[in-house]
Amino acid sequence: MRTTTLIPRRIATTGITVLGAAGIATAALTGTAHAAPQAAEPAHQAAAQAAAKPAKADDKADDKADKKAEKAEKAEKKGAGKKAADYPDNLDGWIREAMSIMKKHGIPGSYDGIKRNIIRESGGDPNAVNDWDINAQKGIPSKGLLQVIQPTFDQYHVKGTADKLTDPVANIVAACNYAADRYGTMDNVDSAY
């Protein structure tokens, strides 16, 4: 039989030891108070000091994250219309940037659903043009990552993205906006749409 020795740890926000919490829980369940065993004072102090260090590190990390978020927000306001430096100029970056814009506008769609449709429609080529289907025969070929025709792009274009049909991010956002209106989300699209 294996025995386990419990070493008290402090919960940073309440100051209650784990063993103390066990005593409280026992009292709540049985209706009677039971004293939890106390550890030797030196071990108790060491546990409290160890618990305090991560809390201080967490506070510093939270402060850094808050400052980074404020800086990003200021940069976004300052450079409205500029492409974010955080997104690489490749398929992954285009999808992530489009999803960021979609989130702001309440347009649904998952990374996997968008990528799956891009691979099927254009193989990831933002300049892909379909010159053989019925739309092409009518003189309005589908273009871009998600093979959108100009009238659909114009109707579902999202302000703040480029006005060019073959712009990767604008194409993704407009196509997802269209798919959301017609199918609920791009995730529901499994064939030409």
What is the helix/strand order? Answer: HHHHHHH
Number of contiguous helices? 7
Average per-residue pLDDT, rounded, comes to 75
Q: State the low-pLDDT regions, or none.
A: 1-44, 77-82
Instruction: Please tell me what the overall shape is.
Output: elongated
Rg value: 28 Å
Major sheet attributes: none
Q: What is the total tally of β strands? A: 0
Indicate the proportion of strand residues.
Answer: under 5%
Helix content: 40-55%
Note down, in words, how this protein is organized:
The protein has helices at about 20-30, 40-80, 90-105, 110-120, 135, 150-155, 170-185. The chain is mostly helical.
Summed up:
The protein has 193 residues and is mainly alpha-helical.
Fold blueprint:
Elements: H1 18-30, H2 41-78, H3 91-105, H4 111-122, H5 134-137, H6 150-156, H7 168-183
What are the main properties of this structure?
54% helix, single chain, 193 residues, disordered N terminus, 0% strand, elongated, mainly alpha
